Amino acid sequence: MTKNGIILFFTHLFTLIIGFAAGIYALPILIAPEGPSVEVIETSNNNATYTGEFRKDLIDSDTFHWGEGVVTISGYHFPDW
Question: In angstroms, rounded to a whole number, what is the distance separating the alpha carbons of residues 48 and 41?
């Protein structure tokens, strides 16, 4: 292979990898269904059986593995949107 062929191979490989990674990132965003309405979420939260909170100030939190927010678990089944 010539020097030009090697350069073309690696630049095309790099472009393929970047395109594949962008597709993996963008596809779930593009095909995501519409979320539930605020009323449905509030009703579910008010009828929750269990409630938990995620905080990032805990001892085992690090730069990449943390979350913030409240999670509720109930017996309510969301309809298909």
Answer: 10
Nearest to 41 by CA among 2, 11, 70: 70
Beta strands per DSSP E along 1-81: 50-54, 69-73
pTM of the model: 0.42
Tell me the C-alpha distance between 9 and 21, whole Å. 18
Q: Pick the closest to residue 54 from 68, 65, 73 (CA basis).
A: 68
User: Alpha carbon of 22 to those of 8, 58, 64: distances in Å?
Assistant: 21, 32, 20
Which residues have C-beta within 8 Å of that of residue 45, sequence separation ≥ 6?
Answer: 70, 72
Q: How far apart are CA 21 and CA 32, in angstroms?
A: 18
Question: pLDDT digit string (tens) for 6-53?
Answer: 999 999 999 999 999 999 988 888 888 888 899 988 887 888 888 899
